[in-house]
Amino acid sequence: MYQIALCDDEIEQLHKTEQMLTEYRKSHPDTDFRVDCFESADELLEMVEEEEYLPDLILMDIYMPDKLGIEAAKELRDMGNPCRIVFLTTSREHALDAFEVEAAQYLVKPLAEEKLFPLLNRFLKEMQEERKRYVLLRIDSTVRRVAVDDIVYCEAQGKFQYMHFSDGSQCMLRVTMGRLGEMLNPYPEFMRVGASFLINMVHIECISKLEIRMDTGKKLFPPRSSFQAVRERYFAYYCGE
Q1: What one-character DSSP code corresponds to residue 218?
Q2: Which of 5, 29, 54, 176 is the most buried (most CB within 10 A)?
Q3: Strands 57-61 and 84-89
Q4: Phi-psi region of 80 (alpha: psi -120 to 50; beta: other; left: phi over 0)
């Protein structure tokens, strides 16, 4: 399910946009999304910051009394929220500012179905493709969307798992290695090695009897008894077997 947030201080316009989305869902029964309405930018920002609300798409009025949509979008980006933002407005005055916050679209009111529906078609298709390559993780009491390609390997240390990323950072996860394996099972590039490692084969640079060297320079030392199985799995993956 996708989460779509509507943010507009004009209540009548907010309800009209919500109704358009209801009509879109009726005409596209294969889509699955939830709509949440916010009458102020601060209300939306509070939800995102405190309640771990992660909208996939935000339709936001650019002119609101409590805070301009551009300002709210900057705060969302500062929180690390990568969602698509569509600004709704009666003026193009802030069109250039919209690019600074990586707005996906800039629509002029009054909003019409013939403008909104093609946009939803494109965004929902894009999000569906993107979601295939992301996993949601709970890290330090927050929910974070992590790109599968950025995961280099995971290592078990006691009751916790440590996930290491291509930029050199890492995070601690309070899940079992088995659960982590289930989450990454849809992605064939991940290989379980012994009891302690879950490795992204895309990031393997070299395999020997003593170590697995990753493209980040990190060297992993799995059980020697696993070498033959690891090598066969690695070759099979790259041969498309």
Answers
A1: -
A2: 5
A3: parallel
A4: left
Residue type, 27: S
Token duo for residue 132: 């295939």
What's residue 121's pLDDT?
A: 94
Using one digit for the tens of pLDDT, what is the confidence trace for 209-238?
899 999 999 999 988 889 999 999 988 887
Residue 1, helix vs strand vs coil: coil
Token look-up 């802030």 returns 94
- 8 Å CB contact between 198 and 181: yes
Report the interhelical angle of 113-131 vs 11-27 (nearest 10°). 60
Q: What is the mean pLDDT of residues 139-148?
A: 82
What does the block give as tokens for 52?
Answer: 């771990």
58 three-class SS: strand
Taking alpha carbons only, the member of 64, 66, 72, 65 closest to residue 55 is 72
- The reported pTM is 0.59
Q: How confident is the model at residue 13 (pLDDT cuts 50, 70, 90)?
A: very high
CA 96 to each of CA 28, 57, 70, 103: distance values in angstroms, whole numbers, following the listed order: 33, 20, 10, 10
**Buried (b) or exposed (e) across 19-51, using 16+ Cβ within 10 A?**
ebbeebbeeeeeeebebebbbbbeebbebbeee
Asked if residue 83 lies in contact with residue 55, where contact means CB atoms within 8 angstroms, the answer is yes
Tens-place pLDDT, residues 74-88: 898 888 788 899 988
Indicate the length of the chain as a whole number.
Answer: 241
Tokens (6 digits) for 55: 């909208």
